[in-house]
Amino acid sequence: MSALPSQSSLSRISNFDQDPPAKKAGTSVVDNGAVGNQAVKISDDQIVEYAPADSRYGWIIVTCAAFNLMCTLGIVNSFGVFTTYYINYIYAHESAASVAWIGTMVSAVMLGGSVTTGPLTDRFGFRKVALTGTVICCIALVLASFTTQLWQLVLTQGILFGIGASLIFSPSISLPAQWHIRYRAIATGLTVAGSGAGGMIFTELTQRMMDTIGYRWTLRALALMLVGISGISGSFYKRRISVPRGGIDFRAIVTDPRLIVVGLAGLFVYAGYFVPWYYLPTAALEIGETTQSSNKLVLYMNASSTVGRVLAAYAAVMVGPINSVALAYLVCSVLTLVIMVVVRSMAGYVVLSVVFGGLSASCVSIAPLVLTNIFGVQAVTTAMGIVNLWCAVGVLIGNPSQGAVYQRFDRPYHSFTAIAIWGFVGLALASGSYLMLKVIIIRGTPKRIWSRL
């Protein structure tokens, strides 16, 4: 790593998030796409660098982004605790499909709203966008604590929290890529590992607080934690490179076949991803486990995903990012089907939690790296936002359909066969999509399908 910027450099970049200086001679040319034979012309502008790549401040960005994801995605990933509580106690008279709309909306809005973060960060800067998201998330949790009906939770804990999380999520995922070149894969892996750590921490905290102070005060306590941690973390966000004066060519990105395939992969992932997260604790209850033991499965998934998101970065370096993510989702699809249909034991559920948590995080770790390699560091926030919109469609298709499938085919018979098949199909199609991406990239090149990509 290079040394810290000089004092003059630090003073020059102190307010660069909103006021970039004029274009300078000798700056590097924008990376318009380095992967494959269909490079996209994103901008004619040169990159103005406000700080050197791979500097020490880049690791501060990684740390702060990890803490931000720890709070936002950690709370989202711990929703399995709330789901079990709502389905079995507070709203037991409601269908599982109705309760699922809370988790559906928070994930869909968080991902779909990310498509706006590229223009917003270009206009207002990463810091202001992230801090605004923190305020909205806290307001959403506080309002949710005063609700008395299910639809009110959908609006507050679902939609409003999702809006705030969208302003934190995409910038936090993409900003570390600006600050790192040599260590980009590892920096991305460490950043997204924060969400897994947050899910593990917040799942345990949520369960304990709900057992002692009730779910209303639990929501208020989560809001207080979020404003403290994310408020501080977002304050350190800074842009390393300039915004293109002519803006990003949105149409060129959104119509690029490589982005479409990555988007389809995200859609399929999120159509089947939440099956173990939302229904494995309920499956454990069906075989006689306690609520506390059942919710431990969510904790195991979060713990293993924390490690898995870091290991995914190393796997991307060793065997190639596309190879690693395609294999990971193939294993996840088969394991989900076999254990939820055939095994039906707590030992099997623990194995599924650990392996699924570790491997299913690959998409979160690898997608930003793949998109940065294709579109360059200036356009990655916009590209990531578009892919997240595809993911939001997957959530909107997947979660309500999962709830309906479980309610119609599984719940009356105390079975999980139909819901397991749903998860298998979604994750298997995601694996196939990444293989399709590899075919597009190697087309017209000497590389083969087994090449390290």
Automatic annotation (TrEMBL):
Q: Membrane-spanning residues where?
A: 59-87, 99-117, 129-147, 153-173, 185-205, 217-237, 258-279, 326-343, 349-372, 379-399, 419-442
Which cell locations does it reside in? Answer: Membrane
Record carries keyword Nucleotidyltransferase:
no
Q: Which domain of life is it from?
A: Eukaryota
Cite the SUPFAM superfamilies for this sequence. Answer: MFS general substrate transporter (SSF103473)
Official protein name in the record: MFS general substrate transporter
Q: Which family does it belong to?
A: Belongs to the major facilitator superfamily. Monocarboxylate porter (TC 2.A.1.13) family.
Q: How does it sit in the membrane?
A: Multi-pass membrane protein
- State the GO CC annotations: membrane
Q: Which UniProt keywords apply?
A: Membrane, Transmembrane, Transmembrane helix
Positions of region (Disordered): 1-29
| GO terms, molecular function | transmembrane transporter activity
User: Biased-composition ranges for Polar residues?
Assistant: 1-17
